[in-house]
Write a structure and sequence with these properties.
three-stranded antiparallel β-sheet; 12 strands; Aspartate Aminotransferase, domain 1; Aspartate Aminotransferase, domain 2
Length: 385
């Protein structure tokens, strides 16, 4: 039976803008609408707002404000990190993993198609990259190592400090996509050279993010124009978005301990209850995971059908199965983890947010057994068959 309340458990895809963030942004659409590059008072007011947000973000990361480069989001930040590094030379070697976000994966593919050498690191059954594998993969011509801080599908946290220390020893720049990790776990900034963040994953607005670039790290800009962001990213600054990103950062770091503890409780409860269903498995590491993500696979079920059935119950979730192609290829992340194809096609990602309540989790746990059984009854495949 359909529920009356909408339950949103897809916070890894995007989050609702926090009321405090929206309130801070609105004046910069209406009364404080100056161009941050203009010399008049309206422009200077906008510039102050941009630099205040830059300083606030830098303070929380314990870095210098000049090392924060505002972008249109993490996809642009990832592209700037990889392509901006590669374009400094006519060839070179990139190291990344098999479970990166598409912004990194497809940037690496693009570089490979143009003659760059790309090493794709394997992961273990939990989705972890081995720091020793990074060490062994580094060559004299390695120009960059890029490994995400925490996986967006299964939540597994990578050994970022160990990888960063190896890169530091070998004088190789290290980039990490921290989109899902920023504001949720501690990040070892002392061993990270570049770090990508997107505002809309932490209750900020869409269309804005940043790339942290350690002083001395050389990048070729991808966007050319007015020389904004100290010549690293041209284009008129998105002042409302940058203000929103600053406030979202402030909230995330101030509330991190409390919100993370609640998310961890939800995750543990979900794992405990969902794994009671037959022919079900947890994808990713059971404990070394981001607090807000839990990913499950159900045998003899197609992931998209599961998501749509839950949507009929007014519950928004997502699948780790990227079944947009005609042959219904499963998620590259789950394949890399070695999840059997019979399970990889039927995955469910549940991701909580600042606004998630126990009632939301209970609603999912009430509907899920019904939906799973209904789909298995319809399936031509049999559980255990």
């Amino acid at each position: 039976m359909a529920m009356n309340k909408n339950v949103y458990l897809d916070n890894s895809a995007t989050t609702p803008v926090a009321p405090e963030v929206l309130e801070a942004m609105i004046p910069f659409f209406q009364s404080r609408y100056g161009n941050a590059s203009s010399l008049h008072s309206e422009g200077r007011d906008a510039r102050r707002a941009v630099e205040e947000s830059r300083a606030l973000i830098a303070e929380h990361l314990k870095v210098h404000p000049s090392e924060i480069v505002f972008t249109s989001g993490a996809t642009e930040a990832d592209n700037l990190a990889l392509l901006g590094t590669a374009l400094r030379s006519t060839g070179g070697h990139l190291i990344t993993s098999r479970i990166e976000h598409d912004a990194v994966r497809h940037s690496a593919d693009w570089l490979a198609s143009r003659g760059y050498d790309v090493t794709l690191l394997e992961v273990d059954e939990f989705g972890r990259v081995s720091a020793d594998d990074v060490r062994e993969a580094i060559r004299p011509d390695t120009m960059l190592v890029s490994v995400m801080a925490g996986n967006n599908e299964v939540g597994t946290i990578q050994p970022i400090r160990a990888i960063g220390e190896i890169c530091r020893e070998r004088s190789v720049p290290f980039h990490t996509d921290a989109v899902q990790a920023y504001g949720k776990i501690e990040l070892p900034m002392d061993v990270i050279d570049m770090l990508s963040v997107s505002a809309h994953k932490l209750h900020g607005p869409k269309g804005v993010g940043f790339l942290y670039v350690r002083k001395g790290t050389k990048l070729t800009p991808l966007l050319h124009g007015g020389g904004h962001e100290h010549g690293r990213r041209s284009g008129t600054e998105n002042v409302p978005g940058i203000v929103g990103l600053g406030v979202a950062t402030q909230i995330a770091f101030e509330e991190r301990d409390r919100v993370t503890q609640r998310m961890e409780g939800f995750r543990e409860y979900l794992i405990q209850e969902v794994l009671k269903l037959p022919a079900t498995r947890l994808n990713g590491h059971p404990t070394e995971s981001l607090p807000h993500i839990a990913n499950f696979s159900f045998e003899a079920i197609e992931g998209e059908s599961l998501i749509m059935k839950l949507d009929e119950h007014h519950i928004a979730t997502s699948t780790g199965s990227a079944c947009s192609s005609p042959n219904l290829e499963p998620s590259h992340v789950l394949v890399a983890l070695g999840v059997p194809l019979s399970m990889a096609h039927g995955s469910l990602r549940v991701s909580t947010g600042r606004q998630t309540m126990q009632d939301d989790i209970d609603a999912l746990l009430k509907a899920l057994p019904i939906v799973v059984q209904e789909l298995r009854d319809m399936s031509p495949f049999k559980v255990g068959g």
